[in-house]
Design goal:
With 349 residues, this protein is an alpha/beta fold. 33% of the residues lie in helices and 14% in strands. The chain is globular and about 55 Å long. The structure holds flavin mononucleotide.
Length: 349
């Protein structure tokens, strides 16, 4: 993936896509990226301008930064936005309206950062409360005008802590085997589905890798992946967002399919791929080593998209660095793309 220029037609990225009552003009999704620019959890005008800028420069769907539910353990960072409460929801309604004004679509990523101790410590009553708070936020997102929601079930945050055998050793119905460990997510998805109705898209993000262990696996085989995903499908997921650090890596031996490819094949649901698209280095080096990444070509990505391996493509750091990434790619202006430098995070515009 060292080429810097793409030689293939990028047309596959610019075909429309529809799921439920959400119609997108193209396949480019802005990945959820925490910014910590919302004092007291309230997104202000600059947040609206930041997302509007990506929408007016051709991003088909924006997934917002993680937005936290109303629970004491949901966030440990004061400037991460809430997805509850009058002030935050008013702020979000303004963000949504700015994005809609320029023809964009936007969904919030709904997040709980994780158990204060272990998920084993939560009692059934507290789990029921958590489930309800996810559903309240889903309903609030719809009310604020968002076009769907994404549930953050990845990266060792709360929902993923329930999924992972290392962090969930419960012996009740929220634990046990891999399917038992999906129980919490299933209840969250079902409650959100009940809160938003049948046609409002629910995207579910999950990952094998964990912040504390890149080689961690929720599942080792396609069969295990199928039995992990089926309860989530049955609960009401419309789209899976399969978080990997490098989209071109095969998920299992014996096939080139990546996690999004396998997930689509096994569930029949549309999927979003993500991980170092358009860049020559993966994103955790930013957090662990303060590293940036250079621009790389997207021929390999386009080939997979053309083959139908996945439906949508999430772009993270490349869209922080360059709000016009989508338009430049569409217009064949790849030589104008801006590399990702960590400095950009200080003054995201
Ligand atoms: C600054 C930053 C903040 C992020 N915050 C979140 C987040 O809130 N929720 C999430 O699911 N992923 C988060 N991620 C991961 C991205 O969504 C994405 O999966 C990752 O950056 C890989 O895509 P990329 O290689 O195109 O950057 C974040 C990544 C970055 C760089």
């Amino acid at each position: 993936m060292t080429d810097t220029q793409s030689t293939k037609s990028v047309q596959a990225l610019f075909r429309p896509f529809t799921v439920g009552n959400l119609s997108l003009s193209n396949r480019i999704v802005m990945a959820p990226m925490t910014r910590q620019f919302s004092p007291d959890g309230v997104p202000g005008d600059h947040v609206a301008a930041y997302y509007r800028r990506r929408a007016e420069n051709g991003v088909g769907l924006i997934v917002t930064e993680g937005t936290v539910i109303n629970h004491p353990d949901a966030s440990n960072q004061p400037n991460v936005p809430y997805i509850y409460g009058e002030a935050a929801l008013k702020g979000w309604a303004h963000v949504v309206s700015e994005v809609h004004q320029v023809g964009g679509k936007i969904i919030p990523q709904i997040w709980h950062m994780g158990a204060r101790g272990q998920v084993n410590d939560y009692t059934e009553a507290e789990i029921a409360e958590l489930v309800q708070q996810f559903a309240h936020s889903a309903a609030a997102a719809k009310e604020a005008g968002f076009d769907g929601i994404e549930l953050h079930g990845a990266h060792e945050y709360l929902i993923d802590q329930f999924f992972w055998a290392k962090t969930n050793t419960r012996t009740d119905r929220y634990g046990g085997d891999a399917v038992g460990r999906t129980r919490f997510a299933v209840e969250v998805i079902e409650a959100c589905r009940a809160a938003v109705g049948p046609d409002f898209p629910i995207v579910f993000r999950f990952s094998q890798w964990k912040g504390s262990d890149y080689s961690a696996k929720l599942v080792e085989t396609p069969e295990e992946l199928a039995s992990f995903l089926q309860p989530l499908v049955d609960a009401g997921v419309d789209v899976f967002h399969c978080s990997t650090r490098r989209f071109w890596q095969p998920e299992f031996e014996g096939s080139d399919l990546n996690l999004a490819g396998w997930t689509k094949k096994l569930t029949g649901k549309p999927t979003i791929t993500v991980g170092s698209v358009g860049l020559d280095g993966e994103f955790m080096t930013l957090f662990k080593e303060g590293k940036g990444a250079g621009v790389s070509g997207i021929d390999g990505l386009i080939e997979r998209l053309e083959q139908g391996e996945f439906d949508l493509v999430a772009i993270g750091r490349a869209l922080l660095a360059d709000p016009a990434w989508a338009d430049k790619v569409q217009q064949g202006r790849q030589d104008e793309l801006i590399a990702f430098s960590p400095e950009i995070l200080k003054e995201l515009y």
